[in-house]
Amino acid sequence: MWKKFSSSPGGSSKFFSQEKISPASVNSAKEVQGCDFPMTKTDMSRMKIIRATNQLYLNLDILDCLAYGKLFLMITEKKESSKKTVIKLEHVNKSFYQDEIVFPILNDISFEIPEKKLITLMGPSGSGKSTLLNILSAIESADSGKVEVFGNQLSQSTEEELTIYRRKTIGIVFQFFHLFPYLSAIDNVALPLYLSGISKSIATAKAKEALSLVDLGHRKEFTPKEMSGGEKQRVSIARAIVHQPKLIFADEPTGNLDSNSSEMIMKLFASCVKDLGISVFLVTHNEQIGLSGDINLHMLDGKIKTK
Ligand code: ADP
Ligand code: MG
Hints:
Bound molecules: adenosine-5'-diphosphate, magnesium ion
Strand order of the largest sheet: 8-9-10-5-11-12
CATH class of the largest domain: Alpha Beta
Largest sheet: 6 strands, mixed
Radius of gyration: 21 Å
Helix content: 25-40%
CATH topology of the largest domain: Rossmann fold
Number of helices: 10
Mean pLDDT: 80
């Protein structure tokens, strides 16, 4: 299914002209898939070519255009080898306190991660893996040190900036799915988009596409209680990618799944990196998974080691 995504027609992300659109050259894009933003004739003919090549690709472009009000491609050119840093931690410390007793959890952690990688983090229970993931997801804050993700200095950001960061830059996948039990799969996936102020029709269309990407298009009206663990986790992944984040954080995403479902989930994460260019930072107990991916981190005594 991800093959649909791999083919980038023409081999470039620059399909649409960037030239200023003059009123005389504007056509209603309603002619193409019901889109209602202004497009040049060149843009429209390019989109028709893309439509002929890849229907799904076109749909996502259109939805992006509608959602963000500008021409924008979800899939960027993958061939360029970039060494951009995605995550940069410098001397990060975190302790918890109980009855004035200090429990140091993260101890002077520093590391850097380049973009478009599948990163695994392993370590014993209680070693601080979730704490680190929560700091990276801006759910908790570090006591000291610098935490930078895609150029966002989390330690210096305002609450408003952190909310935007959580809504736009990252997606989160949990061990126990955290789906709303009485909402259908499609509503669970569309919910973060509704909360961001995107209209119901666009949110639903995007959610439908995201569910197709995780091969659950046929289960979109099912509620979580009608789904297997593996299917629920695929819905969670669809929810995590529906707003096209740059980075996914996953805390023990296969911890509650059988081996076949775990394998499928790991394939989906690998596809997120390979086909969509999304970085994935994954915490696991499973040694096999911990040694898969591109970068393997190990946490022990509040320190990180790279294997
Ligand atoms: P892991 O995910 O590696 O199992 P955690 O990051 O969840 O570890 O927890 C690390 C340690 O910090 C544990 O000893 C845990 O009890 C403690 N801890 C985590 N969150 C809190 C908190 N909010 N208050 C106090 N202690 C906490
Ligand atoms: Mg944990």
